[in-house]
């Protein structure tokens, strides 16, 4: 008798789980994916993201970048290019990496 009630409760639980996770709501609108000839209609500026030409830095704004010893020369060169293109100064600081944590 106990075995039968356990099986009945497991079957009932399974039915509830399947009913709750079922895909009974197929009334949602589905938009087809754009084909190769179509282009997405949303541009970055229309999606709430400003383009780089629209951004004005705050007075005194600067960008601070940290890296270990290996990446500092590369980042300094990139920082020069970024400053030239956007007019925002970039400061590159060397921070100790895992090799400096050893004793």
Automatic annotation (TrEMBL):
Residues 24-61 are annotated as: Disordered. It comes from the Bacteria. Residues 31-47 have a biased composition (Low complexity). Keywords: Signal. Residues 1-19 form the signal peptide. It comes from Cohnella faecalis. This is Extracellular solute-binding protein.
